[in-house]
Amino acid sequence: xxxxxxxGTLCHPPLLRAVLGREVRVAPAxxxxxxxxxxxxxxxxxxxxxGEGARGVLAEGLGPDDIARLDHYEGGFDYRTRDxxxxxxxxxxxxxxxxxxxxxxxxxxPWRLEDWVAQSGPVAVEAAGEVMRLLGVxxxxxxxxxxxxxLMHAASRLxxxxxxxxxxxxxxxxxxxxxxxxxxxYARFFAIxxxxxxxxxxxxxxxxxxxxxxxxxxxxxxxxxxDPIRDRVLLIEQFRMGPYARGDAEPWxxxxxxxxxxxxxxPEDAARREAEEEAGLTLRDLxxxxxxxxxxxxxxxxxxxxxALADLPDDAAGLGGVEGExxxxxxxxxxxxxxxxxxxxxxxNNAPLLVxxxxxxxxxxxxxxxxxxxx
Length: 375
Fold this sequence. Notes:
Elements: E1 2-6, H1 13-20, E2 26-31, E3 34-39, E4 45-49, E5 54-62, H2 64-75, E6 79-88, E7 91-100, E8 107-110, H3 113-133, H4 140-145, H5 147-160, E9 177-187, E10 191-199, E11 210-216, E12 220-227, E13 232-239, H6 241-246, E14 252-255, E15 257-260, H7 267-279, E16 286-292, E17 303-309, E18 319-320, E19 329-335, H8 336-345, H9 351-371
């Protein structure tokens, strides 16, 4: 049996429960001569020697299975344990404390659990479910290497869990889908999840067990900048792996600006950030168009799409992209009639831009009437 002192994210009871797979009683505790800071540039804290004392909680009597689960959850982030005396309930207890490898992280601002819970708590708890499902299947280091993608997937699941209108379609209820087995045969930037499951048939019975797989990518925001005064849009062009893998002779596609929704940001935030990263563009009003699954038979991807008012002078087009992500993007300014010619010819051949172009065609007169006098 072991006693463990937690000073960071695992002080949050829902996260500790998700990691250990059970409820654990903890007591307030303090480690003298230490301080806790955010790890600079990261979404978690680190403990350092020095200071008035690190406050946290003490979990006593953890068993081998608990320790294995903690090692799996923390191990990929280069944390190791030390046995130190902590104060809890007026007692001095020797407990294990997770320390980062020396030099692995730099301390940032002082850590406050309340700040982390407000910013990242629900997403981290959701992500812990996926991390712990991979215990004994995938090494902790591999999980840590793609933890940002796991967080984005978790944020997508939380948004999806809010549900949507069900006026015509069946409204799902508890027990309508029963999962008998789950596997993750591939996981890097994207992932593949495979399920053996049953689902409720329209006659009320459950289906036989079927095997289904889904390509996992997080939610994304797509935005088409439009200048209602000049009556032009900004499009981007870049190499795309999907068309290339299909054997398309033209794997450079004309698209709208798009990118993944990061944990802690809204789809609207993502649209504005991507416009800056891909085209150096500051957007004004965002006009929601449609939010949808582009290929629900095989992909978990969900798109939030927008028209955006923007100032698009002649020098707005150029080269862009995030160099560290190997993005190589060229922007084009085209007038509305040219956009529709590209749609009609098939040169625009991806669903998000097709949807946005048709939405612009439908709303263009009203947008121009309302914004004709805009400076």
